[in-house]
Specification:
The complex is a heterodimer of chains A (238) and B (182). Chain A is α+β, with helices and mostly antiparallel strands and 238 residues long. Chain A folds into two domains: 3-75, Ubiquitin-like (UB roll), CATH 3.10.20; 85-216, Alpha-Beta Plaits (2-Layer Sandwich), CATH 3.30.70.20. Chain A has helices at 21-27, 79-95, 110-117, 153-162, 197-201, 221-233; strands spanning 3-8, 11-16, 51-54, 61-62, 73-75, 134-135, 141-144, 167-170, 177-180, 207-209. In chain A, the strands form three sheets. Chain A has a five-stranded mixed beta sheet, with helices on both faces. In chain A, strands 6-7-10 form a three-stranded antiparallel beta sheet. Chain A has a two-stranded antiparallel ribbon with strand order 8-9. In chain A, β8 (167-170) and β9 (177-180) form a beta hairpin. The model of chain A has no long low-confidence stretch (mean pLDDT 95). Helices cover 30% and strands 21% of the residues of chain B. The chains are: A alpha+beta (238), B alpha/beta (182).
Chain lengths: 238, 182
C-alpha cells in the first residue's frame, strides 16, 4: 500500500493511494456534507454538496469523486462553499414538490436534515411546482417523483448491489426522471426482484414501502370478526 | 417603555401555527406587558392598523384577499416574519399549483363538485368569497420578508426562541433543528 499525505482544513492526514478526498476526510474525522454518496456503491458526484476547495484549482471539486494526491491542500469549510451548498439545496427544493409536512420521510429525510443543518431557513428561488406522478403500481413499493432529487442511489444499488438493472435515468435536465425498465409501470417490471434495495438507498421520501403513508393505515378489522365468529359460532368463514 | 405593537395574521393555512402560538402558555403572560397585540385572528380588530412593529404571518398567499392584505401589511409593518411552512414554502396549499394553469378551476371542481355529497355547486359570490389566485405563493415571493420561522407548525419553543430575540431588538438567529421543515 502506498500512502499519500495531504492537508484537510489545515490538518495533516495520510490516505491510501486511490482513496477519495471524502474517504480521507471522513477517516480523519472531518465531516463533509453529502447526499448522493452511499456506502457500498461507487460515487458519481451527482448532488454537488460535498464540493471542496483544492489549492491551485479554480473550480470547486466534489470530494467523493476526487482522488487524494501528494501535498494536496483541501478546504472543506468556507464562506464560498457554504454559499454554494446552500444554493444547491435551495435549487433541489425549488425543482420538485418537497412538502415535508405530508411526506412519508418527514423526520427521516437526509435532504430535510441537511437543509436545517446548513441553515436553510427559506428558499430564495421561485418554486417551480412541476407536475409529477406517483407510481403505485408495484405490490410492495411506491415511487413518488415529487420527492426525487435524482441522486441515483437507487439506480446504483439496483445495478451494482442487486445486479437487477431495473432502475434507470431517462430524460434531460429538470425533466430527468428515474424509470423502471423501459419506462414502464413498476408493477409491470419483469426484471425487478422486489429486493427493496432501492427503497433502502433513497435519501428522501421518493421511494417508500407501501403501508407507510398516513392513509394506508389499514386495520384488518375483518380478522377480528373472523376470530369472534370462529369462537362463538364455530364458523370458519375466511 | 412603550410596548411593541405585534400583529399575527392568518392567510392560507390551517391555523395550526396560531394553535402553536397559544401553546406558548405562560410565556404569553410573561411578555404581556412588553407587547400589544394590535391585530390577530384571536383579537377582534377589523382593519390592519398603521405602525405595527412585528407581524407574524401564518399561511401562503392563496387568494385575492390574501394578496391585498399582505401588501397592506408590508406597507404598515416594520418587521415581517414568515410564520410556519405555509408562509415559508407555500407547503400544502401550493399542492394545487401543479395542476396547471386552470388549476383554480380544477381545484374547485374537485372540492365542490366531484367530492360533494349534497348540492354540488362551485361557490361564487363576488365581494364575499375571494377569488383564488392562479398560483399559491410563499409570502416572500410576494413581499419582502425579514425573518423566517419554519415548521408545520413551528413548535412553541421555536416561536419563543424567535420572539425573545425579536423583542430584544436583535436579528433572530435560529440554528440546526430549530429550522426543520415539516
Amino acid at each position: 500500500m502506498s500512502a499519500r499525505t495531504l492537508t484537510v482544513d489545515g490538518k495533516q492526514i495520510s490516505a491510501e493511494k486511490g482513496a477519495s478526498v471524502l474517504q480521507a476526510a471522513t477517516e480523519a474525522g472531518i465531516k463533509i456534507p453529502t447526499l448522493c454518496h452511499l456506502e457500498g456503491v461507487y460515487d458519481v458526484g451527482a448532488c454537488r454538496l460535498c464540493l471542496v476547495e483544492v489549492k491551485g484549482v479554480n473550480k470547486l471539486l466534489p470530494a467523493c469523486t476526487t482522488r487524494v494526491a501528494e501535498g494536496m491542500e483541501v478546504s472543506t469549510n468556507s464562506e464560498r462553499l457554504n454559499k454554494y451548498r446552500r444554493m444547491t439545496l435551495e435549487l433541489l427544493f425549488a425543482e420538485r414538490n418537497h412538502v415535508c409536512a405530508v411526506c412519508v420521510a418527514n423526520g427521516h429525510c437526509e435532504l430535510q436534515t441537511l437543509a436545517y443543518s446548513l441553515g436553510m431557513d427559506h428558499v430564495r428561488y421561485d418554486y417551480i411546482f412541476p407536475k409529477w406522478d406517483v407510481d403505485n403500481t408495484h405490490r410492495l413499493f411506491g415511487m413518488d417523483h415529487n420527492r426525487c432529487i435524482l441522486c441515483t442511489r437507487c439506480v446504483r444499488s439496483c445495478w451494482h448491489i442487486e445486479g437487477a438493472g431495473t432502475k434507470n435515468v431517462a430524460g434531460r435536465g429538470t425533466k430527468s426522471k428515474i424509470i423502471t425498465d423501459l419506462n414502464q409501470p413498476w408493477g409491470d417490471s419483469e426484471s425487478c426482484t422486489e429486493c427493496g434495495k432501492c427503497v433502502m438507498s433513497c435519501p428522501t421520501g421518493a421511494l417508500f414501502k407501501k403501508g407507510s403513508a398516513v392513509g394506508e393505515s389499514v386495520r384488518d378489522r375483518d380478522k377480528l370478526e373472523f376470530i369472534v365468529n370462529a369462537r362463538e359460532k364455530k364458523q370458519w368463514n375466511a | 417603555m412603550e410596548r411593541l405593537k405585534i400583529a399575527t395574521v392568518w392567510l392560507g393555512g390551517c391555523a395550526g401555527c396560531h394553535m402553536s402560538f397559544l401553546d406558548l402558555d405562560e410565556f404569553l403572560i410573561d411578555i404581556a406587558d412588553k407587547i400589544e397585540v394590535v391585530f390577530s385572528p384571536i383579537a377582534d380588530v377589523k382593519e390592519y392598523p398603521e405602525g405595527v412593529d412585528v407581524c407574524l404571518i401564518e399561511g401562503a398567499v392563496c387568494n385575492a384577499d390574501n394578496l391585498e392584505l399582505i401588501h397592506k401589511i408590508r406597507a404598515r409593518t416594520k418587521v415581517l416574519v414568515s410564520f410556519g411552512d405555509c408562509a415559508v414554502t407555500a407547503n400544502v396549499p401550493a399542492m394545487r399549483n401543479q395542476f396547471g394553469l386552470a388549476n383554480s378551476e380544477s381545484v374547485l371542481q374537485r372540492a365542490y363538485i366531484e367530492n360533494a355529497q349534497y348540492n354540488p355547486v362551485i361557490p361564487k359570490a363576488d365581494g364575499i368569497v375571494p377569488a383564488l389566485l392562479e398560483n399559491v405563493q410563499p409570502v416572500h415571493e410576494v413581499v419582502h420578508v425579514e425573518f423566517f420561522l419554519p415548521g408545520c407548525p413551528p413548535p412553541a419553543d421555536r416561536i419563543k426562541a424567535l420572539m425573545i430575540q425579536v423583542l430584544a431588538g436583535q436579528t433572530p438567529k435560529l440554528e440546526g433543528v430549530q429550522l426543520k421543515f415539516g
